[in-house]
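Q: What does the assembly look like in three dimensions?
Context provided by user:
Components: two
Sequences:
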Amino acid sequence: MKTVSTFNGARELADGRVGLVPTMGYLHEGHLSLIETARSENDTVVVSVFVNPMQFGQQKDLETYPRDAGRDSALASDAGADIMFTPSVEHMYPFQHRTVVSVGTVAEGMEGAHRPGHFDGVATVVAKLFAGLQPDVAYFGRKDAQQLAVVRALVADLAFPVSVRGISTVREADGLALSSRNVKIDETNRATALSLSTSLMLVADAFEAGERKSRVLRDIVRQSLALSQQLAVDHVEVARSADARTVDAIDAEAFVAVAGTVGGVRLIDNVTLDPSTGTADRGTRLTRPSILYGGS
Amino acid sequence: MKTVSTFNGARELADGRVGLVPTMGYLHEGHLSLIETARSENDTVVVSVFVNPMQFGQQKDLETYPRDAGRDSALASDAGADIMFTPSVEHMYPFQHRTVVSVGTVAEGMEGAHRPGHFDGVATVVAKLFAGLQPDVAYFGRKDAQQLAVVRALVADLAFPVSVRGISTVREADGLALSSRNVKIDETNRATALSLSTSLMLVADAFEAGERKSRVLRDIVRQSLALSQQLAVDHVEVARSADARTVDAIDAEAFVAVAGTVGGVRLIDNVTLDPSTGTADRGTRLTRPSILYGGS
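A: Here is the predicted structure of the complete assembly.
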């Protein structure tokens, strides 16, 4: 694996069909799943690691975001990456935030409502990665379902010849969706945190049993979450995968998303529901502790 | 020359080094100069013809914008184009204006102040042409100096691997910068319209004689224009070519821009001044009537 820090350098090394896995580093098994899928589908796999200042609302979050270039490099290489693209902030934003890409309504509601400007930052940096690296395929986790919709909208609206692949969420053995934030959840809050994925598995059951009404699916989540008094629920929504627009019934691929805070840690999770097959994507589960906890 | 109306179709036909000339059609010698330059520098020359709804403020202007596909096709082909790209509005905006690309301060002031939202429309459609057609070089006229700066900012900020070439303004034999609007200027207003280019030639003289102070150059334009009582001057500005930021002195490539209205027709013009060579780009002049007036 080669590490480069400029767009020109990365383009020169990329050959044949190019798969891009954009990340903010501090890789876990969710990212590795994206890289492994990219490896199986492309000639060149590029993993970008860039903690994008533009998508952080608060300077403190940006400064304390975990970074470990050596660890990321070893993990990406083992998972099959050919190129690690690690641009500096100055290379990515030589003129700061002069150009902004906004995807309009797709970025409103849910996470967009909770984090104003966040998806402008995501859309702008992804547009830049697509423009500068010219990948054929790009891989994003389904855990960030609205982000995936933002990227799909960006690609459709700006005609990028990039195929966008949403990859199943990787969960810890107990069901908690993988996130670098999971290490901040202590023992006493773990059961509360698990209420998110538990409620979504009930939604998956109901959907696969034939339920298509959003109101009913939302109620299943809300009633399940009501059992966890330590959880502050932020939102429960049912939205189309294509554009994150909330829907009353599931007649095209959609996701049921939940967000909440437990012990000061904000968590999000979702299940993707596909009415064409009648199946829910519950994600995959690790069989041993995540590398987030110091394993390898 | 082949005519295609989809991004995929255009990309499939393009081979080797690709030069793109984005236009809104109704071609005149200014466009033909861009196409001829592109012809001399590339393997494949793509001319796009798309009247972009997003860059029009008023519906009436959009509806009355002149269109003649047959004429454009013949002219582009004669000038050396290989591919004419004529997407429909539905192909370009299947989801209307969901994604917007804004270049911030570069789009403010001058034409941006006169036409709110105009440069968002320009930046968005150009980003889409660059993303979807993946040209190596793109050609724009210097007559639209702020638009050229907007495109340069877009390319720098989104890392498009596109070389942007600004091409000298083509003027009618009497000096009036070519514009499809020129046909709306009647005999009685022609002399007034010429005051724009006349004033800019005086600026070019002063610059080449060593003048570098923006205030002095602006005053030359204002004093010259004051002789034309029929002209309503909108602005006279001195700005950097790179980002359209107004400057007090010319220490990098800059342009002196003037905008005004005569007989209900809004006209813009400028000269580009290069301190590294000490020369002004006054544009080139036709030696016979423009094809805008019905010649060929």
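Follow-up: Residues 126 and 151 of chain B are 7 Å apart (CA to CA).
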